[in-house]
Fold:
Amino acid sequence: MSKKEKKRLLRILIASVGFVAALFLKLDGIAEFLMYLVPYLIVGGDILWKAARNITRGQVFDENFLMSVATIGAFCLGEYPEGIAVMLFFQVGELFQSYAVSKSRKSISELMDIRPDYANVLRNGELIRVDPEEVQMNEIIVVKPGERVPLDGVVTEGFSAIDTSALTGESVPREVQTGEDVISGCINQTGRLTIQVNKEYGQSTVAKILELVETSSDKKSKSENFITKFARYYTPFIVLAAVILAIIPPLVTGQPFDMWIERALIFLVISCPCALVISVPLSFFGGIGGASKSGVLVKGSNYLEALANTEMVVFDKTGTLTKGNFAVSEIYSDKMTSQELLELAAYVEDYSNHPIAQSIKKAFGRAIDSSRIKDIEEIAGHGVKSVIDGNVVLAGNAKLMKREHIFYNDKKLVGTVVHLAVDNEYMGYILVEDEIKQDAPHAITALKSAGIKQTVMLTGDANEVGKKVATTLRLDKAYTELLPADKVEHVEELMKQKKAKGKLAFVGDGINDAPVLARADIGIAMGGLGSDAAIEAADVVIMTDEPSKIATVMKISKKTLRIAKQNIVFALGIKGFVLILGAMGMATMWGAVFADVGVSVIAILNAIRALNVKKFNTPIQVSQKQEEGNRQGAMA
Structure:
């Protein structure tokens, strides 16, 4: 509990004791007035001060003004207990509100804790502690166990497990070693890491995330904008109605003014719009906090609301549905064993850093004796020619085999095929493919269960490759062989096909996806380690490489919107009903207190439910059959 909340609670307790004492003493005249005035000022003094201050600033019609007028009026009519009770329960409601906001902020404030306090930078052979903003590109920093990684960079020395939970929501630490990237905001757990900085602090992952979090509350949802506009006209209207209620009926009927003034005061208390003004924004704030706990950054409540109305999700392929790195998926040879063919390919590709070559060497998984390799020659657009153990080895595509007049297996395969020949004799082929992410099939299933009507994929890959992915993942549509500009055109065309209120979300991770992310109703960037341009252009950032998180945040958004609508209907319904009773003289000041504070507390407690996202984070169980099908469905 914050200091402000403790002070409020203390005032409530002291005023409650004074209130009870005044009720039991049963004094008369000025003594009774003073006995009730003291607890009234203790519990309501700050409300009276805020009302007066806001009036001087031109902000007349707010909840402080309504509470002040209603309670001062009650005192003027001699209804001291009712006046104090209104202030007491109003402060109790404010205390609940403060608690709810603190609880909602907790998830985001935990994310804000990723800000590094210092960096250990190596300068002139000495380790110096400096502000992260003072570290320059390519400088060497040292991160000890237990310290937070202050800047993005590449590990030059060391091995450790790093905790990424604050960024990604994942509880399992990630192991890093020499040559691997690390991002700022993670906590180094086990070993000492030496890191070469490759981004200044202002461009680092942690700085960008903090900027997104800090600006997320600036972008209001339609529901929040509605409530803001509603309160702007609603409160003055209610004050005018209360004045009319206090003056016109007694003039027309000849009844006492006291009776109608009391009804007008009750009317004011009932009409206070606290339940709406607080609970609706709180619902969206809780939803954004719940999403951040799940490793998803939503840049504003307007985007959270839009996600709830999404009916079409369009995916980029490489890096989004697939891993973006190649792996050997098939080896064919009838003249040597598969392992011998793989060894031959690894040796002939040893010099190359091409992704295809790297995937073959990774599949081979052993040290290469470079003394066995002679006379390497790269044949542009075809492949490689080399002498290994005195034999001329060719490795490349079908064009290389045709050029050398070698009869080869021309079986139609989806992926990158590396043919091998030794001394002009065909030995076999290796199929290399870009693997589908293990999480991708479950992501599509989860999106369908979340109410998404259509899933589409856009890719620049060949038609056969794209169709294979679409079939494996059971996507509704796939458009292939597209340039970046073509993707924008297809998204625009798809946006025309959806319903007027329906939204289209595009999911991508590469720099060439930035234009499409910006054009879609909702742009979703995959992976905290993805392209900076994609993250800048996106409205939602998935901090992991799991596409199933998209379904998670959509379910969170629908729950949030449902809670916000519940609060609007509940608050307006109860207040409208009790307002009518108040105008007819059938509601007391105590009933008015319930209609205001009671409704506010219930609406606030309902809004807190938006933070509960545990059921949305339950991993989808994968059957062995599904995993096998996924492996078989790997593609380029």
Observations:
- The chain has a mean pLDDT of 82.
- Residues 285-323+437-557 form a domain with the Rossmann fold fold (CATH 3.40.50.1000).
